[in-house]
Amino acid sequence: MCIVYRILSARAQPNRRCQHEESSHEKGAAATPLRSWQRVLWYWHRGAQVIFGLSCAPLRSASTLIHTAGPAYIRTYRYSFRASSALPSITLWSLQNRCWQRRRKIRRVDLYFVRTNFVSDVCLCTLPAPRFLATIKSCGCCASTHETDAATSYLKHLNSDEPDVDKDDNLLLHRTTPLHRAVRRKDFFAHGLFIVYNRYEANYSDEFGLTHFHAACMYGRKDTVKGFLEVVRDPNYLVRETGDSPLHLALAYDNAEVVKFLLERRADPNLANKEGLTPIHILSMARRYLSDSLRIFIEFCDKTVEYKPPHVNAQDKKGNTPLHLAMNIARSAQWKMVEWLLRRGANPNKANAEGLTPLHVISEIGDGDIHDKILAEIFFKINLEMQKTVQVDAVDKFNRTPLQFAVVNFSRHMVNILLDQGADLSSFVFPTENHFTKRLDTYCVRVWRNFKLKLAAGSVAVVESLEKRGYELDQNDALTIMKLFAKYELFEKSADLDKILNDDEEFAIEVKQFMVKPSLSFYDLIQLRPKEAEKVFTFTDYFKFSHSCIFDYSKSNGRACVLNMCEKVSRKFFRSWALESFVKLTHYRLPMECCSMIIEELTNEDLYNICLAVTSQNHLNRKNDYK
């Protein structure tokens, strides 16, 4: 529970004895040095300005974490203490913002009090950077305006880094230091802490087995790594919790110089961590192309005779090879990585634990025409040059093919490429509604921008590509697509957009000025009838527009615009299937022309209900026939 205290204007002096000590001397009792926590509580009750959190066994639970602040409000928290040589995890600096500007400067004597009465590892790493800088500048410890330099100077002023020793004078190195905390939080001044902890024989290890040597590899400090390695003498020294080697860490953080140095010191390029990830897996998972690190890694492994070539087909615990991971990133930067893996002998048909091949991954993860088309073309082109046959109809453990993944992902280009490469359309089974919804619920809804328009344009475009190649869509397949429109609310309410354009003049002007094509404004597009819109705006136009659409779906006007486009792009699909169903529903009593005229006046939601009614009637008839 938070208790707000008003600090008095009196300032505590570190060398001044407390009232308890004075009274003891007056009574003639032997002077007993007070514990640091007792002194802090005394200063607190006296309204001291300088009180820091501490670690001490006798105080089981107390309101602590008080910070330096002149006349200001401070917060105190309940905290459970334990005996330790270092503070477990202190969160200092809970000053109220309204009082921050009135904070008085800290005097050096206060810093001396903290330095002499508390442990040396007082961790200020949790301070917000602006307040941390203001604090240390007010101390007069550093005149630098650069945050990293200022933090380094202050911590060097506060910490002498004298490691504890046991009775045999052996260094006690198993403890968490501010450097460990800073590295795990990726704090801005972690580099400066390497200056504080500059004794290479003191390679501190935290509770997870992360050492200062590993931290230096993560932060690319080649000289520090070199110094630690002279003591450790093992370039494959692992982090106990994860099994990561120094090479894993250097590659993950793209520290090319450290990568080169470790390889020159015979770091193992094929060593796997506890997840089964090798250094080449790490490179394959990079979200950006690690040009320097990858180049150094490849050149060194290819040119050094005593090293075995990297295992490009090594599998992690999930059965993924580096090629699986490189395909899964879906970034243009990884195209070069895919090419290098394939040319170094990566197996294009190797399946992971779920039975997914790299081709499944391309078909599933693709986000946009560019990724699908270019990456798939690179994949098939290089395999053709390497004279490797790609199994385009490979199935996973659920008997799903890459073509099914491409359809579920609405990847029109990927569907065409797979069919060009010989995918068997005669045995193709249209994905189920569950397959679609599982994919959409777990990925697209959260990630895709303008998801509704992409779903509408992509689903109809994929169906058209399949039909052009000879696939015959049946009523159940069409109803599966329609159910997606209903589930994800892609149906337009006819009066919404007209009402918005009439009520919101500013938005109407904006719509008229917004061009969807060089000669077509969005206002002109929404005024067209669906049949007329089909002639001037194709599926490809809708899908491209979905990647650049500026309408905010969270607002009513943006939502109405998106749903209007969803209605238009899918109108032909709904009309063709609903017309046949409507004729069946009327038992062929109306002429086709009359049925067509009626269909034209209905919305897509009405057409969906017609198809749904006919399907339900067919199921009922089959049950009656069975009886």
UniProtKB/TrEMBL annotation:
The keyword DNA damage does not apply. PROSITE patterns: ANK_REP_REGION (PS50297), ANK_REPEAT (PS50088). Pfam families: Ank_2 (PF12796). InterPro entries: Ankyrin_rpt, Ankyrin_rpt-contain_sf. ANK repeats lie at residues 242-274, 318-353, 398-426. It comes from the Eukaryota. Keywords: ANK repeat, Repeat. The keyword RNA-binding does not apply. PANTHER family: ANKYRIN REPEAT AND PROTEIN KINASE DOMAIN-CONTAINING PROTEIN (PTHR24198), ANKYRIN REPEAT-CONTAINING PROTEIN-RELATED (PTHR24198:SF165). This is Uncharacterized protein.
